[in-house]
Amino acid sequence: MNLEAKNLEYVYPGGKRALKRISLSFQPGMTGLLGPNGAGKTTLMKLLCAGLMPEKGAVLVNGEPLAKKEKELKKNLGYLPQSFGLYEELTVWQFLDYMAVLKQLPDREKAISQALAETHLTEKKKNRIRTLSGGQRQRVGIAQALLGNPGLLIFDEPTVGLDPEERVYFRNLLAGKAKTSILILSTHIIEDVQAVCDRLLVMNHGEILYDGTAEELEGEAECDSLEQAYLWLQKGEEARQ
């Protein structure tokens, strides 16, 4: 799959301009998305998966407008927004089965079993979601995104609420998925981006401040760490405002 954004702009009803002429192209691989709250990251991700429609510009899927490809895209999409609603009274299996039906997966039982195994939830499959811990609920959210091994995976803060060992496990799991899928990871955990992302995007005020590798940014900033380079980039952007 090839996913492309061309001159995307988006203005919210209150008049806030969330994106300003964003042009990007994505192929299989893992892209880390960094930026402060309000930078436009969530808006960009929603536009890429047809959760919002652009004011101007276009999203292209394999070279064709999203309007023609929306149904196909959503069947091949795994999406975990930052605030993800779970049906409290359903069991983990029932919830994932519901999501598999929405995705029209041909072999729901196989897809669910694989997602449960990957997220270490097999033993919890009969538990009602309301009985799960915060970390386990987050893993259910990750599991539903992984159902069916989609070609486009978009995660907004997926490791929030996970302990350090779980966070390392899941960032490595996602890196493995990115070998064959487009994977976009928005996070405030710079260590996760540095550890597993092939590409780094930094956003602020609805614009792309940087598009390259973490190592290249460190070199430009003449810093020893991505965290220092990220702060250097932000300070430079603030000085231009």
What's this, in brief?
The chain has nine helices and ten strands. It has 241 residues and is α/β, with parallel strands linked by helices. The radius of gyration is 18 Å and the shape is globular.
What would your notes on this structure say?
This protein is an alpha/beta fold. Helices cover 40% and strands 24% of the residues. It has 9 helices and 10 strands. The strands form 2 sheets. Strands 6-7-8-3-9-10 form a 6-stranded mixed sheet, with helices on both faces. The protein has a 4-stranded antiparallel sheet with strand order 2-1-4-5. Strand 9 and strand 10 (207-212) form a beta hairpin. Helix 3 packs across helix 4 and helix 4 (108-118) packs across helix 5 (134-146). The longest helix is centred in the C-terminal third of the chain and has 15 residues, at 226-240. The protein is globular, with a radius of gyration of 18 Å.
Overall average residue pLDDT: 93
How far apart are the termini?
37 Å
Order of helices and strands: EEEHEEHEHHHEHEHEEHH
Question: Structural class, from secondary structure content?
Answer: alpha/beta
**Biggest sheet, open or closed, and with what strands and sense?**
6 strands, mixed
Strand content: 15-25%
Show unreliable segments: none
Supply Rg: 18 Å
How many distinct beta strands?
A: 10
Oligomer designation: single chain
C-alpha geometry: globular
**What is the overall number of helices?**
9
In the sheet with the most strands, the strands line up as: 6-7-8-3-9-10
Percent of residues in helices? 40-55%
